[in-house]
Amino acid sequence: METARDIPVRITSATISSERRITPSWTIAQLKDKLELITGIPNSSQKLTVQHATDQEVVIETENEDRLQVGSFVQIPYTEIKVTHKTGTAVPKVADVPKWVMPSEVYSARPSTVLAYKKAHQVGRFDPAAPEILEQKIAQMWKEIEERGIIPNARCCLSGTRHGTIRYVGLVPELDGPGPWVGIELDEPTGKNDGSLNGTRYFDAKPSTGVFVREKRVEVGQFGVLLEEELGSDMEEL
User: What is the pLDDT of residue 2?
Assistant: First the structure.
């Protein structure tokens, strides 16, 4: 018997947000077992809520989770499945867990550290020629952007798998690393933002369709919208 095609969905909880693929023939119990591995919430304590792009939230409730199939609730690609704890107790975020941090002045004074080695051997930012090397690197990035024809409103392919339109080329202080970034509005909601970062807007895009990448990952060309069967082919299965 032919099985139903896998469906790309968005899994969200208090600690994660991820695109995954699910099989409609899975039971609710099977889905919860898999969700426990990525959310940390025990399957018996999970409350699942389904929300499509324009619909209201629907809570998945059944007395027989071993028989009811996921396909009864999820048929549309990129449906969001929210996973919360029934008691309201969420798994704490790593950033919120108390931890001991060595003071920078103590670390700097220690002799046998990576920092001490870099200082002694003038590696990285301790290299006297580091500023000049950085300038050359940034200049090369701008040159590659020009040679590749990376300009706003050009169609592009990102890492060979996702298609979209270039909306911004320039500096993004909110991101780590010097030099220019390329802002792309993706055709599908597989991005990270809506074209803004930390309150600064660089371009307008729908939620989860915006992404900022380096020029090396961008290929400019006449790229059309991907067919449904091509979507999610590189996406991690749940």
Answer: 41
